[in-house]
Amino acid sequence: MTSFAVIVTSYNYRGFIAEAIDSALAQTRAPAQVIVVDDGSTDGTPEFLRERYGDDARVTLLCGENGGQLVAFRRGVAAANADVLCFLDADDRWEPDYLAKIGELYDARRDVDFVFSDIQLFGDEQRRVAYAESAMDLGYTAISTYILTYWYGAPTSALSLRSDWARRALDLPEDVLKTWRLSADNCLVYGASVLGARKYFLPTASVGYRIHGNNGWWSTRGPTSTYFNRLRSRALVAHYARAAGIDDSCIDLAKLEYRTKPAPTWAEAKRYASICLRGDAPWWKRFERALAILANGFRKR
Length: 301
Hints:
This protein is of the alpha/beta class. It is built from twelve helices and twelve strands.
């Protein structure tokens, strides 16, 4: 049976973190580890954690200097010893059946490397946010991510992946660590895709994403912020592509990557068709590949 380690990361979330940790401990399918990484909080969180969980053998506390979310991820992953690693932000929470639901999938599908879920917003906003309306085997996503910087994922608390993939995705040089102090879930999402993980979207209705202030990624941003965020993402994808040995010649394989998806959406078909229209192949060959993908996508609508 697949074992799970839960990595809870926190910075100055003393008022929220107990609810997050307790939700991990309350899972009907108990995790092998609950690893709590405090990233140098100054609001009394380390003292609170030691008082509340210091004698709880189920909880591993890692309280250190501030290094940013990505460094906290790496600390948690280094301490983990489980088949699958799940990430949980200190201001979020899970329903008790979350690990049981994703566990069934990991148990049954040894070929699936990365599972992400929908989220239920709570706090200052209430609604559901999901990649799709139903479960979806996304197959492999390296080429689509490399060419389009497409994000096959969810916020931190709805992400899980096999431990080897987490370690590979977070094996990053110092300059990248500095760039991605925050929004480090991008490293897990982009890294797993480009390095070759097979992805699966599984709606669980079990991940609570707390809205307080402007902590949602949909917060209003100006054009300058949007530009630099996308530029950083493109550079991150390029880093993983170099590590994987991927370059623009992979466009010729886009049709094959598309075929790894058992039931792609029409939007996915159009996405891959647009990729096939690029590259150095003769125009008629590019058109032929794109048309084949669109015909396949239309039949499956």
